[in-house]
Amino acid sequence: MAKKAAKKKVSKKITPKKVVKVVKKIDSKQQTIDSLIELIRVTSTEVPDDVFKTIVAAAKSEEKDTIADYAMGIIKKNIDLAKYKSQPLCQDTGTVIFYIYHPAGFHQTPFKELVKKSVTLATKKGYLRQNSVNSLTGENAGTNLGEGHPSIHFYEHKGSEVEVKLVLKGGGCENVSAQYSLPDTTIGAGRDLEGVRKVILDAVQKAQGKGCGPGALGVCVGGDRADSAYFAKKQLLRKLDDKNSLKDLDKLEKEIVETCNKLGIGPMGFGGKTTLLSCKITHANRVPASFFVSISYMCWAFRRQGIAMNKNFAIKKWLY
Amino acid sequence: MKKLNYPFSVEAVRDLKVGDMVLITGKLFTGRDAVHKYLHDGNKPPVDLKNQIIYHCGPVTLQDKKGKWTVTAAGPTTSIREEPYQWEVIRDYGIVGVIGKGGMGQKTLDACKEYGCVYFHAVGGAAQVLAEKIISVDGLYLKEFGLPEAIWELSVEDFPVVVTMDSHGNSLHKEIEASSKEMLNKLL
Ligand code: SF4
């Protein structure tokens, strides 16, 4: 509903120009900024449908009148309230990460500038907290811009539209994310899928409730340290109800969720049935000497959204 | 569901046990890294904290034209960062409650037992639900630390928390950590 209302606002701005009958070119820069701010607003204040459904199902599975049931009730209420008030779900609006898919011939540099401008404006509007700190000086410019912030990744794709996906990755859950180097003798994890299973379970047990669980995992098996972490996080772009095209990984994903939910950690680590909402796994080649497994832990406040833009950079479609 | 109403006291919190779901009505003082370090360095708190509750929270606040503050988001922040300082603050200033997320360590647990204090866990990320429970902003101290790091004096009504560390040496975090580890070993 909120999304539709916002779209209307955008089109209202354009209509009066037509009425005056002055044939003006649509200001595609302004339109891009409007679309991106709306993307940031929706991402920060709502969880996508697939996440919401999973949370509702998880809440139902908890026994009535337990602490877990109570916590899930508060989480659900918070989701409703944030959407209704159009306020951030959580005060930590996280690392702002853009994944931008564009056709050939697209100019990345000017678009990047518009993305930055939108982030600053969205911060002023309160959709993002002043959340970016210089790691050397501790200074917070208050704009969410700085070295490496926001994080922007571009990809050329075959489609003719520009698609922008956005993830807001909280700090608490980032702190419990992990990277393992196999073999790991402390938990007897070897260089095979069984070893991968062991380290993922270990990471979830170590995280307890500290990443604001129930959490969702993105995992990458292989790659060098940097790529492995990057691909793991990118798995968070998958819808929670999708299916892995690789049979072995699909099986492992399901098994991880089932097993983790037997650990009894529960929402916030209060104890209970829901420790993990989902697990998404990908793989990347490695050199013979290394075998990394990276685990990106996302909190229940799973903020991910995306838009497909039309020729004029207005929002054509929501991707989640 | 239990209720804890202002004025708070050591006796009242001694009645609380790990696992209790509690609605707090009364006063809370926010305090996070800067405030804890300040107190640890030997500075006196700008308000009397005796029998008060400290909330590990960096709220998002707005001031209207008349100068009135409202809190628009107020979820808990990770408590363990205050572990080196918290026990001293409990001992020296007589606080009877700490609200945060993620739980705290042995030093704090020991101080809770010795001096009479409990650790309340709020639901992490529930910034909107918790902000709704704040009915007024009554004071602002140590503003020079920046607004999220300052001490905010807040009045709350039915603020929902769970006791995860009580004043009798029990910690839900320790229990769950141990039981989940045992379960993990079985499943590995
Ligand atoms: S981990 Fe997520 S829900 Fe928890 S405080 Fe951080 S951003 Fe918010």
How would you sum up this structure, described in words?
The complex is a heterodimer of chains A (320) and B (188). With 320 residues, chain A is α+β, with helices and mostly antiparallel strands. Chain A has 2 domains: 20-46 and 89-170 and 303-318, Dihydrodipicolinate Reductase, domain 2, CATH 3.30.360; 172-298, no CATH class. Helices cover 40% and strands 19% of the residues of chain A. The termini of chain B are far apart. Chain B contains 6 helices and 9 strands; from the N terminus they run E-H-E-H-E-E-E-H-E-H-E-H-E-E-H. Chain B is an alpha/beta fold and 188 residues long. In chain B, the strands form 2 sheets. A 5-stranded mixed β-barrel of chain B has the order 2-3-6-7-9. A two-stranded antiparallel sheet of chain B has the order 4-5. In chain B, 30% of the residues lie in helices and 30% in strands. Chain B has a single domain, classed as fumarase. Chains A and B meet through helix 4 and helix 7 of A and helix 5, strand 9 and helix 6 of B. Iron/sulfur cluster sits between chains A (90, 92, 94, 170-173, 211-212, 299, 301) and B (75, 124-125). Iron/sulfur cluster (SF4) sits between chains A (90, 92, 94, 170-173, 211-212, 299, 301) and B (75, 124-125).
Give unreliable regions of chain B as ranges.
Answer: none
CATH architecture of chain B: Alpha-Beta Barrel
The main sheet of chain B comes to:
5 strands, mixed, barrel
What is the fold named in CATH at topology level of chain B? fumarase
Bound molecules: iron/sulfur cluster
- What is the CA-based Rg of chain A, rounded? 21 Å
Average residue-wise pLDDT of chain A: 93
SS-based class of chain B: alpha/beta
Spatial extent as radius of gyration of chain B:
16 Å
The end-to-end distance of chain B, rounded to whole angstroms, is: 37 Å
The 3D shape of chain B can be described as: globular
Can you give the helix content of chain A as a percent range? 40-55%
Number of helices, where a helix is a run of at least 4 consecutive DSSP H or I residues of chain B: 6
Largest beta-sheet characterization of chain A:
5 strands, mixed
Amount of beta strand of chain A:
15-25%
H/E element string of chain A?
A: HHHHEHEEHEHEHHEEEE
